[in-house]
Amino acid sequence: MKQKFAFITGATAGIGQACARLLAKQGYNLIICGRRQDRLDALKQALTNEFGIECITLSFDIRVLEEVQAAINSLSDAHKQVDVLINNAGLAMGLSSFEDGDFRHWDTMIDTNIKGLLYVSRTLVPHMIANGSGHIVNVGSIAGKEVYANGNVYCATKHAVDALNRSMRMDLSKFPIKVSAIHPGAVETEFSIVRFEGDAERAKKVYEGFENLIADDIAEGVWFMLNRPPHVNINEMTIMPTAQPMAGVIHRKS
Ligand code: NDP
Ligand code: 8X3
Known about the structure:
Largest sheet: 7 strands, parallel
CATH superfamily: NAD(P)-binding Rossmann-like Domain
Strand order of the largest sheet: 3-2-1-4-5-6-7
Radius of gyration: 18 Å
CATH architecture: 3-Layer(aba) Sandwich
Oligomer: single chain
Number of helices: 9
Bound molecules: NADPH dihydro-nicotinamide-adenine-dinucleotide phosphate, 2-hydroxyethylsulfonic acid
Structural class: alpha/beta
Distance between the termini: 53 Å
C-alpha cells in the first residue's frame, strides 16, 4: 500500500511536533513546516533515523501568501497531493482587556490563525481534489467554542477557525475530503511563552497548580480522527484538562 503523506504546519514545537512524531511512528511520510529551519532539520533527522520515513522540510511564514505558494510550488506534483493537512500553526499574543488591546498583537493573530490557515488550505486543496481524497485537521481551541476574559481577539480568531472548519466540510465533502477540528484546552507548549513575548516566568504560572494537557494528548486525538475508516468523519473533538471544565476556569490546588 502507498505510504501516506501528511503536511503539518507549525511542526517546530508543541502540538505540531507531537503530531509529526506520532504520525511518523504510524508510518506516515511527512512535510513539516515552520519558520525555524534549524528545528525542522533536527526533527527531520530524528524522525527519519528513528522511523525510516520520507520527510521534507518547508520553511515559510504562513502569514505571507507568496511564501506559502512558493513553498508548496517547490514540491513535486506527487508530493503536492498530500493525504492529510494538519492546520496547526497558530498563536496567541497578549492577554489584555479589549480597551488596552495592542493592534500589532491583533494583526499577528488574525494574519496567522485565520489568513495563514486559509492560504495553506486554499493552495493545497486543489491537489487533494485532483487526488480524489484528503483529510484536513484544523487545530482550533476551546477559545473557539467559548470566550474568556481578556481573550477577545484570540478567541475571535479561533471562532473563525471553528466556522471555517464547518464551512470547509460543507464545501469539500463532495470530493470527498474529510474536514475535522480538534479543540484543546490548556496544553503546556511554547504557547504561553509566545503569548507573553518570552516572559517564561509568567508563562510558567499558567500551568501551576493543576495537571495541564501535554502535546501528545492532542496528537493522540488527531491520530484517532485520522485513523477512522473512509466512511467515518469526526467533525470535531474537544479535549480539556480535567481541572479545566471550560475556557477561563481552572481548578488549581493552592
Ligand atoms: P507552540 O508555540 O508550541 O507552536 C506553535 C507553532 O506554530 C510553532 O511550530 C511555530 O513555528 C508555528 N507558527 C507560529 N506562527 C507561524 C507563522 N507565522 N508561520 C509559520 N509557522 C508559525 O504552540 P502550540 O503547539 O501550543 O500551538 C499549536 C496550535 O494549537 C495553535 O494553533 C494554538 O492556537 C493551538 N492551541 C494551543 C493550545 C495550548 O494551550 N497550547 C490550546 C488550544 C489550541 P515557528 O515559530 O518555527 O514558525
Ligand atoms: C489555548 C486555550 O484557553 O489557554 O487556545 O487560551 S486557552
